Each structure stands twice: as structure tokens, then as C-alpha cells.
Structure prediction request, 63 residues.
Amino acid sequence: MEEGTLAEWLAADGADVAEGQPLYALESDKSVQEIPAPASGKLKIHGAIGELYKVGDLLAEIG
Prediction:
């Protein structure tokens, strides 16, 4: 997979998230995957639902 469409945010902007908690759903040609948080902290969303992103693009920060 080289790119995908941000289908849905599963956590709200500004929410406290835990490592492993599903953050967003990413849709590719073949499937929809829930992407987990890589760390715990406060979520700052940058990505927009319906937009196409390449692997490695910044969709959110956890601080």
C-alpha cells in the first residue's frame, strides 16, 4: 500500500488517547484498516476525512 483515503477519525481532536487505541480508519483499494495510536497523549488532528494521503504523510500528532 502506497496511499489511502482517510475514511474516519475514531478519536476526537484534543482527546487523550492511549497507545494501541484505534485513531482512524484508512481505506485503500482492497480494504479499510483501523490505525492504532503509536503512543499515549493528547491528539492533535491535521488530516481531513475524504483526502488521499501517501504512506508517511502527517495526519496527526500525539503530545
